[in-house]
Amino acid sequence: MKKNKKIVLAYSGGLDTSIILKWLQENYDSEVIAYTADIGQQMDRKKIIKNAKKLGVKKIIINNLKNTFVKEYVFPMIRGHAIYEGVYLLGTSIARPLIAKDQIKVAKKFKAFAVSHGSTGKGNDQVRFELGYHYFGSKIKVIAPWRIWKLKSRTDLISYAKKHNIPIPKDKKGAPPFSVDDNLFHTSTEGKVLENPKNSAPEFIFQRTTSPEKAPNKPTYVSIGFKNSDPVSINGKKLNPGKLLEKLNQIGGKNGVGRVDLVENRFIGIKSRGVYETPGGTLLLIAHRAMESVTLDKDTMHKKDSIMPRYAELIYNGYWFSKERFKLQKIIDLKKNKVNGSVKLKLYKGNVTIQSRMTKSSAYSMKKVSFEENKTFNKSNVERFINFHKKKLK
Fold this sequence. Notes:
Helices cover 39% and strands 20% of the residues. It contains 13 helices and 14 strands. It has helices spanning 15-27, 45-54, 66-79, 96-109, 125-137, 145-148, 154-163, 241-254, 279-293, 298-317, 323-332, 366-369, 380-391; strands spanning 6-10, 31-38, 60-64, 114-116, 141-143, 179-182, 187-190, 220-227, 230-234, 237-238, 259-265, 271-277, 341-348, 351-358. Helix 3 (66-79) packs across helix 8, helix 4 packs across helix 5 and helix 8 (241-254) crosses helix 9. It is elongated.
């Protein structure tokens, strides 16, 4: 008897991956296993299961990875202050390695010969997924429909969906939706009117942030506590990683914090315009840097700043599981045990300002910086210091 072959598909339950699921069934003599990673995205479990079953899927796996995602991927990235091209907090980029790792784990469990994803042939995600697949399962075949099928456009996909009775979702204006990716860290929106950089982003596309104009007329204050460089509490209340980020998303989103509109340089060589919402991540980044400012020495902070662009680029390009990223992470985390205390932030109509930094660290000396005369700082050394650096100008 012929052994039943299996393919594990990264399945969201939406239009694209439903079409891919059907296409895999039509083109491969294999059972398709629908795999969904729950990393805090807006998702309807019942709908995912219903849509998959409607397409004849027998095995539907939904794994809750929210705490793992935040603790082992988002927090290390926050410790590195990773920002790509000056503005992007890497919300999509940081999620793909975890999904790829867990998808390969499922594939090995069910002895699948292949894994598949719904990333387009022009996007970054195909690289991120497949580098992760290779790292954890180099012998498992990768099927990337967008690179091999004859469906070349969104119009082709919709025609295919109609032919196979696959439901086509509509956006708030009654048209096929924007391309949206979301997780507990962020939401990204691309396509349609956004493809032309001269067009303003319509307000209705924003999903987790209130516009600054409609944000509360009174400021909101939030205190974030840190232990060993990771956030552990909000306003004195300890929360697990997933709940903490979820709470910060609510607070930041309500106050119009975390919106970014950018044209980025994709890894594969083309430019792309997108709108990103990262309210909780924005608060964490600002608070963490403020916490480090009173707990770490200058050399450590400046070293971290110097490697950040490369660190961010590695994450963006899909190299989370690379030797180089591991090496940079060790540098980033070298003195993380010193980063302890709390930072209080003021949020008002999209703006975030630091109100206070509290720590038991001795890295910041009030006596040394005081304008009052004291014996803790020898001013006579300053002239020698300046003269030394004058010589380095020549």
